[in-house]
Amino acid sequence: MGTLAPSQLRYYLAEVGAEVERAVVLYPGFQSEHEGYAVILEELDELWTEIKERRGRGIGARKEALQVAAMAVRYLLDLEAEP
Known about the structure:
0% strand; mainly alpha; globular; 3 helices
């Protein structure tokens, strides 16, 4: 795989940020650690399904990986005591 270019990292982080912003507009914040965990697990399970069905490098897997990352950030935003 090699080294990640800074521009590549910025691109992916911007995508995650946009997905977090979309989720904040569409859905209420996590009300508990359990809810946050459940949402992250659901997204991870959906990614796992893509992988098991041999689509782990496809557009569906990419979308689910983005969701996993975005929901982890959402967890931090909604539930972290202090940034």
